[in-house]
Amino acid sequence: MKIVVTGTRGIPNIMGGVETHCEELFPRIVSLGFDVTLIRRSNYVHDDLKEWKGVKLVTLPSPKKKSFEAIIHTFRTINRAKKLGADVLHVHAIGPALLVPYAKLLGMKVVFTHHGPDYDRDKWGFAAKTILKLGERMGCMFADDVIVISNVIKNLIAKKYGRTKNVHLIYNGVSEPEICDYPEYFNELGIEKGKYVLGMCRFVPEKNLHHLVEAFVKWKKAHTDRTDIKLVLAGDTDFEDSYSLGLKEMARKNGVVLTGFIKGRKLHSLLTNCRCYCLPSSHEGLPIALLEAMSYGVKVVVSDIPANLEVGLPQDDYFHCGNVNELSEKLGKIIEAPLQHVDYDMSKYDWDQIADEVSEVYQGVRK
After folding, report:
1. N or C: which end of the chain has fewer CB within 10 A?
2. Considering only CA atoms, which of 91, 83, 79 is closest in space to residue 6?
3. What is the pLDDT of residue 122?
4. What whole-number distance in Å separates Cα of residue 11 and Cα of residue 364?
5. Quick one: DSSP state of residue 366?
6. pTM assigned to the model
7. pLDDT tens for residues 266-293?
8. Helix (H, G, I), strand (E, B), or coil: what is residue 52?
9. What is the reported pLDDT for 67?
10. How far is CA 176 from CA 90, 93, 95, 326, in A?
11. Nearest by Cα to 216 from 275, 295, 298
């Protein structure tokens, strides 16, 4: 069966939750006997790969303008998928889902994965939010099958669109942790094992990293003797804007360590040795970054938004979204407490199991 994938910027080593999802999922789908072609956006690709771990890669041009790139690239992808003779077009995210009816008009079977209501993201203006809401509607109304990554999203589309048939709850996954040390990298960053708080995500407004900086600075001002404790922000932004520039400037002024976008051993070492991981977001689908931190057994503190609550952490790991004082207090308690390893139940976030479930969706849509 030939599967063509769109809605992602691309793989491998491209920043983003959907990108990480696709990077983990589709090599496993290939190993199950499917022919997978993933179509990438040219402005994010810095290699000339034609195949990666069995996944065929096609790179098509797209404008690097966040308002138009997804929709224009998806249109081109659907036309390419038709030429390739796709048995199933798999569309990721609600923006690209705007063109699900077009794919159906061309006679294709369509699976749509809803990764979260992106119109809630702070970066979008009124027009973009309207288009994203329409994309969600088109995906939910016209896709043959819909995959949702959380019960929050499943309930949302049932309430808004009455869509309950051929809707499959399949969580995001997380790989086995790669426990490691990287002393040279830590020396370069000026940090010590167990003596830093880690924030790891894209530098966009809805991640609320400015709240994390504010909360950490507030704690530092009350504990001027603890110069050994650092805040590390791992990540960057796709589109440099006033928020990302302001966040970086705020971080530098307050001695926060900025790593830029990292993967591999650098990221694994930061996850292995952090004091705790913090995700203060106002919006998420089901955050892979949080699942990754949990897989390393590190203490986490996250905002009490529905997507984070669905993970089912102990109540003390949550703080009220936007409450900087509460976050500062929770960080302080974790910093002052003995370093701890937490054994989270990660069984339902197994990528191999997830690949099996997605393959069953493909088989069902072709019947």
Report:
1. C
2. 91
3. 66
4. 26
5. T
6. 0.87
7. 999 999 999 999 999 998 988 999 999 9
8. strand
9. 66
10. 26, 25, 31, 32
11. 275
Largest CA distance in the chain: 67
The span from the first CA to the last CA of the chain, in angstroms, equals: 12
What the block records as the tokens of 218 is 């507030």
What are the residues facing 198 on neighbouring strands?
Answer: 232, 277
**8/106 Cα distance (integer angstroms):** 21
Instruction: Using the Cα atoms of residue 198, residue 204, residue 207 and residue 209 in order, give the sign of their dihedral.
Output: positive
Q: What is the pLDDT of residue 225?
A: 87
- The contacts of residue 319 (CB under 8 Å, 6+ apart) are 280, 301, 302, 303, 304, 326, 327, 330
Tell the residue number behind the tokens 């499917």, with chain if given: 34
Per-residue pLDDT for 120 more than 80? Answer: no
Average pLDDT score over residue span 54-72: 86
Quote the tokens at residue 150: 């959380």
Tell me the residue type at 246.
G
Q: How far apart are CA 354 and CA 222, in angstroms?
A: 45
Can you tell me whether residue 214 is helix, strand or coil?
helix
Nearest partner of 141 among 89, 105, 97, judged by Cα: 97
Please give the pLDDT value at position 203.
Answer: 94
Task: Give the torsion through C-alpha atoms of 104, 32, 12, 102, to 10 deg.
Answer: 0
Contact 141, 160 (CB under 8 A): no
Structure confidence at residue 239 as a pLDDT band (50, 70, 90): confident
- Tokens for 288, please give them: 């892979």
Burial zone of 162 (CB within 10 Å; 0-12 exposed, 13-18 middle, 19+ buried): exposed
Say yes or no to pLDDT of 163 above 90.
yes
Q: What is the pLDDT of residues 175-195, one digit of tens each?
A: 899 999 999 999 999 999 999
Distance CA 218, CA 16 (A): 29
Q: What pLDDT is recorded for position 16?
A: 87
d(CA 60, CA 55): 16
Helix, strand and coil in the chain, % to nearest 5: 45, 20, 35
Euclidean distance between CA atoms 301 and 222, whole angstroms = 20
Token pair for 198: 């880690």
